[in-house]
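Repro:
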Amino acid sequence: MATTEPYDFWPPFIFNSWPPLIAASLGDLENRLLFFREHFAEHLVNEELPTLSFHCLKNEENKWFTCSEKPSTSYNDELCDDLKEIILNSFPNKIRITNLLEIDSGNISRLLINEKLESNIGTIKIWDRTISADQLKLIGSSVKSCELFDVVVKSVNKNCEASLSEIIQCFPLLENFTFSGGSVSVPVSSKTVKELLKIPHFFNIKYFFLQNISDKFDINEFYNSFLKKNKTMDVKLSFDSNISETFKQKLSTIVNEILESETTDFWPPMFYGRFGEIKNKLSDARVCYCQIKN
């Protein structure tokens, strides 16, 4: 096989265990087989190939791993622990993920998030990557839970960072959203709150956590236009350590108003940051609301 180059048949790949996507380590022979498979795949332009379906798919250091669960297994928002490496990039097939996609590292633009991926993902988790808003849109239509850790999202025009509202718009069924990390700040501006409140599905989110928020965020607008009416979303906001004293005073005023009102008509937010006892004060109010809610 190694000495012929006609594409009269699809060269097989050699496996050492079932399922057949689990590859043996065959050194140079493995690389040569992959070469012939990839070149043969280029001749399949007019062929209708079956879609490869996975329950969980994880990328770490440019290697792909999947679990043994059947793709039809119900969505559970968790990465299975019985992961095995697969040789994914050599397949020309379209790909469907039914539970969770996790990207820990690697060039995700080249590896997966493109037109080959059919959007059926329930949860997406990405660490320490740069990704475009277009890529998020490709997979976002079915996503219920999105967790971004130290992730930079580029806007559609690729010349600037996408706003928080642009990111949220990528996920019309979103229920849980986390934007966190130590090196990347939440992309907010003075317009962010108004932009978020124009998105109909923003109000369907159940859990909303932002970290490293700058004092560009209009906290007064967010409190008066949304938080004071919010009964269904668990909001947790962690502010940058460099926020101004003026902004800290705004936070203190909001917290004091919540505590003095003793109301249970809305779900008190949680504020995190280096500004005194705000977190502890809000914790009691949140506990009280949750007890009444339940």
